[in-house]
Amino acid sequence: MTDPVFIHPLPDSCAAGQVFELSGAEARHTEVKRMRDGESLVVSDGVGRAVRGCWIGGRVEVREVLAVAQPRPRVSVVQAIPKSERAELAVDLMTQAGADRIIPWAASRSIAKWDGKEKKARLKWENAARSAAKQARRLLVPEVTEQLKHPSDLGALISDAHSPRVLVLHESATTSIAEVDLDADEIVLVVGPEGGISDDELSAFAKYGGQPIVLGPQVLRTASAAAVALGALGVLTPRWRKATIG
User: What residues does the Ribosomal RNA small subunit methyltransferase E methyltransferase domain cover (predicted)?
Assistant: First the structure.
């Protein structure tokens, strides 16, 4: 079984033999996990640094500094906001499947709205992503960005330098994800609401090169579509060819 992962700030400089403490929620998590002296664990800051250590006397003794692999292509998921009971499920599933960034989208046909409660709703998504990353033994926790209110604002959230490829999941598309050229530094995966993406929204995504694609013959629910697409990308690109934790 792989070592448990804890998400916690690391000392400015980490080296073998260094000892540090976990605090807050992660300290409580060690109690839930019933960590015992001598057991191995991994601590990551969630953004690019991680160590493997040994639990001794309620503290972490660093055994090795881990190389945190940055996947290529990087995948950002533009997720239409699902109903409240499915929103955290969507975040959990896409985090397990490897999403690198999550962009909540207030699609015109989304039933759920964040009006006046965006800060609280976004925090729930961040907590769901953090929890799922730990469960999946991920060293990188996906960023949850501010809400995308209209596809025309996508340019402010994607990097032209990386020449992102925008793929729009759409049940009426005729191009399969297996037929798309996926050789890119970044892929932006757009998942619409249960009611579908409007024609105006499709046109707005098309201005960024958005290409409608289909995953397969089934029509997936908005809460699971991103995870299925990320699984396909894991197989069709180099993203899953190297394990993050040895």
Answer: 73-233
Query: In this structure, are 212 and 130 located in the same domain?
Result: yes
The H or E element that residue 228 is part of is: helix 222-236
CA proximity to 187, closest of 171, 223, 163, 207: 163
Rounded to whole angstroms, the Cα distance separating 127 from 16 reads 30
Residue 19's CATH number: 2.40.240.20
Tell me how many domains the chain contains.
2
Backbone angles phi, psi at 55, to 5 degrees: -85, 110
pLDDT 10s digits, 181-238: 999 999 999 999 998 999 999 999 999 999 999 998 888 999 999 999 999 999 999 9
pTM as predicted: 0.91
**Sign of the four-CA dihedral 205, 92, 128, 161:** negative
**Residue 81 near residue 104 (C-beta atoms within 8 A):** yes
Q: Which domain holds residue 36?
A: 5-66
CA 158-79-152 angle, 5° bins: 45
- Please report, to the nearest 10 degrees, the dihedral formed by the alpha carbons of residues 190, 71, 244, 63 taken in order: -130
